[in-house]
Amino acid sequence: MTMLHSLLISALSLGLLIPSSSAVPVSQLSKRATGLLISMAPKSNTCAGAPSPKECKTAGEAAPFINQSFRTYGITTTGEAAAVISTMAFETDDFKYNINHFPGVPGQGTRNMQSPEFNLKYAKSIPALQSKLAAAGSDPKAVLGLLTANGEYDFGSGAWYLATQCKLTGSVL
Question: Distance of CA 54 to CAs 12, 38, 57, 70, 92, Å?
Answer without folding.
Answer: 32, 20, 8, 25, 13
